[in-house]
Amino acid sequence: MAKLFAQIRIIAGALALAFVVATAMPVAAQQPSSVNPTAAAVKEQQLLQQLNKIEGRGTIPDVKSYVLEHPAGRAWREYHSVTLKWIGGIAIFGILALLTLYYLWHGTMRIEEGRSGRTMLRFNAFERFVHWLTAVSFVILAITGLNISFGRSLILPWLGPSAFSEWSEWAKFSHNYLSFAFMIGLVLMFLMWVARNLPSYTDFVWFKNGGGMFGGKEPPAEKFNGGEKLIFWISTFGGGGVIVTGFVLLFPFYGTTVANMELAEIVHSVVAVLYVSAMFVHIYMGTIGVEGAFEAMADGHVDVNWAKERHSIWYEEETQGGAAAPGQAMRPAE
Amino acid sequence: MARMKFLCDADRCIECNACVTACKNENEVPWGINRRRVVTLNDGKPGERSISMACMHCTDAPCAAVCPVNCFYTTADAVVLHSKDLCIGCGYCFYACPFGAPQYPKVTNFGSRGKMDKCTFCAGGPEEDNSKEEYEKYGSNRLAEGKLPLCAEMCSTKSLLAGDGDVIAQIYKERVEKRGYGSGAWGWQTAYRESIAT
Fold first, then answer.
1. A73 near A257, Cβ under 8 Å?
2. Is B73 part of a structural domain of the chain?
3. Residue A134: inside a domain
4. Chain B residues in contact with A49 (beta carbon < 8 A)
5. In 3D, which of A297, A161, A151 has the Cα closest to residue A224?
6. Which residues in chain B are closer than 8 Å to A168, comparing Cβ atoms?
7. Quick check: is B197 in a domain?
C-alpha cells in the first residue's frame, strides 16, 4: 500500500512537473525575438540621404502623389531662377553686343565690283518656302519661349499682372502649337540641304581666313560657305535638341517622372538660348551684314557679281552647265 | 504674428484619410485633384509609417520663385497662396515643389493643365474673404473666421497639427518626451530649414 502511494506520488509529481513545463514553454515562445517596430521605423534624413527622395504607397490613382518629398525640386528652382538667367543673359546680350561692335567696326560686307545688273537663281520656291516656314516659326517660338523664362523680370513690370498673364497664356499656346510647324520645317530643311552642307577642306580654308570678315577677300566657297554650314549644323542639332525635349515637355508624365521633366526643361532651355544666340548671327548676316544676301531668300535670285565673290565654287558649277544654256542660269535684273 | 505650419506626427497617423476627406469636402475640391494625401512608407512591414502631406507653405517658396507670371503671394501669416486668374497652367510650380503640392485639373491636350489648385491652409485666395467667388475658386476661408484648417481639426488621432509653428513644435516636443520616441517633423527641414530637436 505504501508502495502504491509512493508510485502515485511520483506519477502525480511527474505530471505536475510536465504540466508546469508545458504551460511555461509557450509563454517563453511568445517573447518577441528581435523585432522592434519603433526602432525599425524610417527616419526622414536617412531616406533623403539614401535615395534623394522619399516615396511610399498611397490609395489614390495619381501615382505621382506617392512621392512624399523630392528636394531635387529645389535644385531645379535654383537652376531656373538663377543659372538660366545668367546663361541666357550672357549668351544673348553678349552676342548682340559683339554683333553691334562688329557692325560699327566693319559695316556691311559690300560687293567689291559693284552690282552687275545680271542675276542668277540661288534658291527655288520650295527652298524658300521651307526656310521661311522654319524661320517664322522659330522667331515666334523664340519670343514666346523666352517669355516663360525672362518675361517675369523684363515684361511683367511694364504690362502689369493681368495683361502679362493674358499675353503669357496666348504665348504658351502659340509655343505649343507652332512647335509642329517648326519641326516639319526643320526636318524638310535637313533633308533638302544636308548634301550641300557636308564639311570639306574648302570650309577649313574659309575659316582659317576668317571668311573674309576680318580683312582680306572672301575665300572660295561652295553653295554654302563654312559659316553657313556651321549655322546649318547648329540648327540641326540645336533644333533637334529642343524638339526632342520639347516633346517630353509637351506630354508631361507620359512615362516620365518629375526628375525627367526637370531634366528635359533644363536641356530645352539651355539649348534654346544658345540656339537663339546663334540665330542672331545668321539673321544679322542675312539682312544688314552682307550686301546682296537677303534677296537670295526673298525672291531667290542673286546678283552675279555677288555670287562670283561670295560663292565662287558654286558660281563656277552653275555657269559651267550654264555655258550650254546661259538663259537658264542667268537673266537680266528685272 | 503667427507663422502657420503643418506638422504630421508619423508615429500617430493611422492612414484613416479623414484629413483627405475633410479637405475635399470643405473646399469642394473637383474630381482628380488631391490637395492633401496620405503616403505610407514601408507598408506592411515593421516600422510602417504614414504621413499626411499637402502644401507645406514653405519659407522662400520654390513654387513662387519659378512661376513665370508671378501668381503666388505670401500672406502675413506666412501662408503661400496664388491667383488662379493669373495662372497660365505651365506646370513649373509642380516641378519646383519638393512635396508635389500643386495639382492641375486637366491631364490631356498637350499638357495644357488648366489652372493650378493646391492646399490653401483653408485661407482662400486673393478674392474678398468669404465671398462666393473666393469659395468657388479656392475653397473655404476658415482662417478669416479665426479657425484652423479642417484637415487638422478632423484628424482622428491628432497626428496632423496645423497652426503657429512655435505652438505645434512645442506640442510635438512634449509628445515625444512623454512617450519616448518620435520620427521627427517630416518635411520641416526642406520647407522651413529647421528641425525640431527631440
1. no
2. yes
3. yes
4. none
5. A297
6. 68-69, 88
7. no
C-alpha cell at A110: 559690300
- Whether A306 maps to a domain, the answer reads yes
Asked if B138 and B125 touch (Cβ cutoff 8 Å), the reply is yes
Whether residue A26 is contained in a domain is answered as no
Does A57 contact B40 at a Cβ distance shorter than 8 Å? Answer: yes
Query: Chain A residue closest to B44 (CA)?
Result: A57
Bridge partner list, A302: A120
Contact of B44 with chain A, judged by CB distance below 8 Å, is answered with no
Domain that holds residue A246: 125-315
Note whether residue A83 is domain-resident. Answer: no
The predicted complex's ipTM stands at: 0.88
Q: Using a CB–CB cutoff of 8 Å, tell me whether B136 touches chain A.
A: no
| Assigned domain for B198 exists | no
Q: What is the pTM of this model?
A: 0.83
Please give the single-letter amino acid code of residue A293: A
How many domains would you assign to chain B? 1
Gap from A229 CA to chain B (nearest CA, Å): 34
B69 part of contact set with chain A, CB < 8 Å: yes
How many domains does chain A fold into?
Answer: 1
User: Which of B41, B88, B94 has its CB closest to that of A172?
Assistant: B88
User: pLDDT 10s digit of each residue in chain A, 334 long?
Assistant: 778 888 888 887 778 787 776 665 555 455 555 666 676 677 777 777 776 788 899 988 888 889 999 888 888 999 998 999 999 999 999 999 999 999 999 999 888 888 888 999 999 999 999 999 999 999 999 999 999 999 999 999 999 999 999 999 999 999 999 999 999 999 999 999 999 999 999 999 999 988 888 877 888 999 999 999 999 999 999 999 999 999 999 988 888 888 889 999 999 999 999 999 999 999 999 999 999 899 999 999 999 999 999 999 999 998 886 443 344 445 555 4
Say which CATH number the domain at A305 has. Answer: 1.20.950.20
* Crossing angle of the two packed helices A84-106 and A258-284, in degrees rounded to 10: 10
The domain that holds B8 is classified in CATH as 3.30.70.20
B92 touches chain A (CB under 8 A): yes
Domain that holds residue B154: 4-192
Q: Could you tell me if residue B48 is inside a domain?
A: yes
Residue A128, all three cell numbers: 524658300
| Contact assignment for A172 to B45 by CB distance below 8 Å | no
> Which secondary-structure segment (H or E) carries A69?
strand A67-69
The CA-atom distances, in angstroms, between B41 and each of A209, A309, B46 are 65, 72, 10
Rounded Cα distance between A228 and A290, Å, is 13
Dist CA A215 CA A234 (whole Å): 25
